[in-house]
Amino acid sequence: MRIALAADNGNWHKARLLAALRAQGVEPVQFSLADVAIVTGGGEPLRVPGFPETLPDGVLLRTIAGGTFEATTMRLGVLHALVASGVTVWNGPVAIERSVDKAATSLMIARAGLPTPDTFVVSKRAAAAEVVAREAGPGRPLVLKPLFGSQGEGLQLIERPDDLPPEDAVSRVYYLQRYVPRSDGLWRDYRVFVCEGRAIAGMIREGDGWITNVHLGGRPLPWAMPPRAAELAEAAAAAVGVDYTGIDLVEDGEGGFLVLEVNSMPAWSGLQKVCEVDIAGAVVRGFLAAVRAAHRPRLVVA
Predict the structure, then answer these.
(1) Fewer Cβ close by (within 10 Å): the C or N end of the chain?
(2) Which residues of 246-272 are buried (b: 16+ CB within 10 A; e: fewer)?
(3) pLDDT tens, 6-16?
(4) Helix intervals (H) in 102-152
């Protein structure tokens, strides 16, 4: 198999994916989507570094190289072109687009009938102010999230219309989600790692403040994941169409859970500290199985 690994940053994760691929007898070509070119005039126009004669059979995507909106659009276009050419891409571009855009994620989760905090997405500050005036208040805030944010960056609690930043500060999209506090006062939520449609690991994330992301100081704790949490995470992954993902859940206060977010390029260093499952190994085994299935000869019956 001709396998490529796209991992522009995050040496910890890249090293573990490399080790897992090599344990399966695969030496991948490492490349950056930023180095892929489109050249017309002869042969395959999509030029992937390390594959001069043909395209890879599979691309395992850990991260997309950062850049401008135009650069990101081109890189997603490259992924779409790879999929259209029969290359197995984990995660694929459709799943990435659905999960990177929090509004699209909320739309897919709601259409699937899955429980999630009430969410409001509008483009104008006046419309956002109406939502806040109606839905929020002292002690019952909404969470304002960057539409394309990750790892807990840029979150704000909004209780009054005056708390809202100007339109330019949110790229003219206000994504507001109801804050769900715990009755015991702890700042705690949950991360479930789903691969190939199955919840394989989970952890508690606990913080000293309301933002619990491990990247910002949250503490990963072992968790005996209940079946209802695993089932909800699996359903959320299926709704968005991700091959491997980190699903963020919060308790609903009635014995159940709500879906907060679906992550198509999840980090798992914190989770790996508190679970026995080899997460990189599970991702690699699932990915290689998908590549083999896509390239398996088909029996033609006359």
Answers:
(1) C
(2) bbbbbbeeeeebbbbbbbbbbbbebbb
(3) 988 778 999 99
(4) 102-111, 125-135
